[in-house]
Amino acid sequence: MLFGFPLLSLIIWLPIFFGLAVLATGGDRNAQAARLIAISGSVLGFLVAIPLYLQFDPSASTMQFAEKHVWVERFNIFYHLGVDGISMPLILLNCFTTPLVVMAGWEVIRERVSQYMGAFLIMSGIVNGVFASLDAILFYAFWEASLIPMFLIIGIWGGPNRVYAAIKFFLYTLLGSLLMLVAFIYLYYVSDGSFSILDFHKLPLPIEPQILIFIAFLLAFAVKVPMWPVHTWLPDAHVEAPTGGSVVLAAILLKMGGYGFLRFSLPIVPDASQQLAGLMIVLSLIAVVYIGLVAIMQADMKKLIAYSSVAHMGFVTLGFFLFNAYGIEGAMVQMISHGFISGAMFLCVGVLYDRLHSRQIADYGGVVNSMPVFAAFFMLFAMANAGLPGTSGFVGEFMVIMGAVKVNFWYAFFAATTLIFGAVYTLWMYKRVIFGAVASPAVEGLQDISKREFAVLAILALAVLWMGVYPFPITEVMHATVDELLAHVANSKL
Amino acid sequence: MNFLPPDFAPAYSEIFLLVMVCVVMLANLVAGEKRRYVAYGLAQIALVGCAVLTFTSISSEPSYTFSGMFVDDVMADILKLMVYATVAAVLIYSRAYISTRDMYTGEFFSLVLFATLGMMVMISASHFLTLYLGLELLSLSLYAMVALRRDLVTATEAAMKFFVLGALASGFLLYGMSMVYGATGSLHVASVTEAIQAGTSNHEVLVVGLVFIVAGISFKLSAAPFHMWAPDVYQGAPTAVTLFIGSAPKLAAFGFVMRLLVEGMGEMVADWQGMLVILAVMSMAVGNIAAIAQSNIKRMLAYSTISHMGFVLLGFISADTNGYSSALFYVIAYVLMTLGTFAVIMMLSREGFEAENIDDFKGLNKRNSWYAFITLLLMLSMAGIPPMIGFYAKLSVLQAVLNAGYIWLAVVAVLLSVIGAFYYLRIVKLMYFDEPVSNEPIVPYGDVKLLFSINGLAIIVLGIFPQVLMGLSLYAIQNSM
User: Fold this and answer.
1) B1 within domain boundaries
2) Does any CB of chain A come closer than 8 Å to the CB of residue B470?
3) What is the ipTM of this complex?
4) Do A186 and B402 touch (CB under 8 A)?
5) Cβ contact (<8 Å) for B421 and A162?
6) Interval A150-198: pLDDT, tens
7) How many Å from the N-terminal Cα to the C-terminal Cα in chain B?
8) Structural domain that includes position B239
9) Could you give the number of structural domains in chain B?
10) CB contact under 8 A, A185 and B410
């Protein structure tokens, strides 16, 4: 409880409330008011999330801060919220990212400012709802609702091919999630009329339904993560989205897929997960190796980072299906760290794009001469993206590789190639953009980053370094939950 | 011989409405050209009066009258109240539109009220002939309304098609009813049930009759493959009339299916279930796929209606209280969405300009972001995205289908609704992502503005709290089975 409000509800509804307030400011005449309300709403949203970490009991594996009220009596749907060691860090990541996104769009967005800022705040609340829901229908409602603001963000403020990207994004995700809905309704009947996720966890199921449910979940989550071969919407969406959209997409929305695997697939259908683990691992490794190679050849910076996101998320799904603590915790760390790094990378590209309106690597070169401070930040994030020890990118990858070695040497071998490919695509891109001869008079005349941009990048840089050097505060909170999850998965439900 | 007058009490609202229709016609004659609002006002008063009469007659015990041909039960009362509200909303939304198009006449209002009366009779029928009577009263009024702008070629053509096909469907229905009569010896809903239960009637004759009845029903619901009239009529009719055809009669059609299939031929569930499965799948497929190709918004909405009716039929397939109440919930949600959507089309139209092309939605967000926002809610609701009401409608129907054991059917429904999402999203795209083609200000009447806002907010508020409507539909069904 915080000021008499249940904490989780506050975390969900406060940003949505502020988002509506921002929308109410109306047209662009009140743009400054919209910005101020947005930044205060998002900072407040982060502040109220802090007690979540401070009051969290890391030794307990049960749901904490639980709230439960009847919502739709007819179908036994509850407004049931709660967090454990898996969802809590993701909520913090989301609340942390929102103010940065608002700041990043501060001057750049000049058209329909209130709608832009409002959409991000509302989405922030919705995503918190996704991570905190313990009722399948509540979860589904938040899950689908998160599509709407993102669809509008890509479609209104995106690049030239934005309409195609927005519709592709929406339909891909919708297809996956509707099958998940069918699975939920099926589980509702098998569990004698309950939509509670925790009841689903305990439900015994024969193997055939387990496999079908696994596939339904897989479609929903694989599209979101995205896993190879359903990743093709992501590069399109990223390239066309405005900077803030890309940041939220990469840092937050992709994590919804990963979270889905941990909250639904593994505990609800553990036997099917074990049986199909081989398939999942192969798909993940294809993402890591093949998409890594694809990333090398990209000429567009945003596309390159988008592909690198797919490769990094391949690590996440790989970690989940190793069924050991290193794998799952490593995957969790990788998710959080990818949230910081990819967000930062997209912000860096956004900084360049705001100045030259080009994302093509070929249009740049020698940026370091005109933007030395920026080059330093970009260097740090590029290194983190390549998985340099001492940055957060290393921790997750290293843990997952350790987990993989335990299961099969070759899994670890192929996974480890990412350390090479990651370095190749990121650093080669960095070299071509930042170093070398000054490409054009426009590049020569670039202004170095403003105070606002400096602040945003510095906060992310601190986060990346802190997690790289001392990840304990993050891993500490998830130990108990992950152990519990592994114990649960080891028990057959047949 | 003693003549006992029948008990008129259960039919007070129908009688009142009939009187009011005559009053509207006469008053309109007296009031003359300049004071058309008299007819409008009287029509609204008639609806309010009916609502009061119906509301006071709600009781958990059904009361029969006219030798058991007419029934007043909870389902009938609730459906009728919905019909009044819908018709009243239709009148408010249409006023501006019809007044600029030579349709603001007494005839329009008396036809609307006659059609309403037809719907009420359908909803309250407990005899196959009463059902038919109500249906014809409704249909004939609708044919006339479509042709109301007789100098308009498209409208006349639409009316002609509607009439010919409608008459054909009525023929089907009557033929089917006569077969049922031949097999059971009665047309009373209750006696037909008894006769079928007793097993004395010839099953084959009954099934043939059932096929014709289902065909007639499908026509009225515009379910594929009996949907051909819908796109032409939706497109050709004046938008105000399209709105009327697309909204309230679907509530009546729900009552119609309940009386005919569920109450009358409920014993033959096994026979009609299979037919409904085919109709539902075809409707969802034809509706969703054909809608993609449409560039006329009214035509697109006709196909969208076809697919929604497929979903409604899905609700009937499980053949239990749960399924019927889901179907009712779906119909109510559908009517709410349809009202709003056509209201937008009429708001975008102005004197001498029909907003019929989907491109007329271009850049609505720039012209008026509030209306664009409400239309966004409407479109997402039609696509079944939570937390809009359309999602819960789909959810409740899908759970009924899964409960009945048709997993494949639920999966097909889900896949087809992804296709459906595309063309709703296209409207959103036009409103939000494109530049406006015209910068005409949108200035609806104050009451339209208010009602439209309420309508749009209802889509999301009832979506966040779906319990109210779900409970109401369950109550309606439970108390009349």
Assistant:
1) no
2) yes
3) 0.85
4) yes
5) no
6) 888 888 887 778 888 888 888 888 888 888 888 898 898 888 888 888 8
7) 37
8) 9-478
9) 1
10) yes
